[in-house]
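User: I'm new to structure prediction. If I give you an amino acid sequence, what do you actually give back? Let's try with this one:
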Amino acid sequence: MDKLGIYLRGLLMGAADIVPGVSGGTIAFITGIYDTLLGSIRAFDLECLRLLLRLDIRGAWAHVNGTFLLCLLAGIATSVVSLARLIAWLLEHHPVPLWAFFFGLILASALVLLRQVRGWTATRAACLLVGVATATAIALAPALNLHFGLPGVFIAGFLAICAMILPGISGSFILVLLGMYGTIIGALKGLDLAVIAVFAVGAAAGLLCFSRLLYWLMHRFHEPTMAMLTGFLFGSLLVVWPWKQVLVWTTGSDGHPRPAQQVPVLPGEFHTLTGQDPLVPLCVVLALGGLALVWLIDHRWGGATREARTG
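Assistant: Good question. You get back a string of structure tokens that encode the predicted 3D arrangement of the chain. For your 311 residues, that looks like this:
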């Protein structure tokens, strides 16, 4: 796998992970690197520690597929640092068109994952429904308040990263539910190294724990797991539906009111409730653009996933 291709995948994953409702794990899957990513994370084990203690740096690097991870993380970091301000501005000033674009992305990604499940059975259909129900419950859940200093930042990192590597469950949206999205985005924008470092340590701990469970499920119960992940993706469409009614407000880290609980509504009801133009034609165009982008990504890189599964 070429280094530039891995870096570009990282750029896409980083861009997706910034937005509440869009998962970098989805991008990893449809670009054909999901299994490689889980396997590389899982490789940070006792064998890796043994190699490091023997000062066999080259062996440890090869054991964890270090070149792959370095290129991917470089792409993710580039996106997070360069796009955090833009995404924050779009979410504040043009949320409806932005959500419409990501609705198209998520819908197309769900259809890509649905195609990966082979041989539907009652068990796999049940797993799909459980995934839809779980994501729906998360989407409609009210926000919590995790603002109790750096320990809260650590917990947020631990939980968000578990969601971030799941196709369909957005780590950023988990941060919204925990009431920590503004805090983390603000830290990235302001380069608050203490908050960023604690968040990264929490994320690393969560990643090492959760990736092992997910890797085991993917290899022992691949089809049911894929069905559940696909359900997560379909259920998460509620999160990125462009037109929402805010049920509960909270105060963000910047002192401004932020939506803490929202429910999807039709464009006409959205106009009645908010007085804002629902911008339906523009939203349709942007959603179709999101669909087309995922189709292009899957057409360019999705063959790697299919070949790995049929090979």
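You can read the tokens as a compact description of the fold. Here is one thing that stands out. The longest strand covers residues 244-251.
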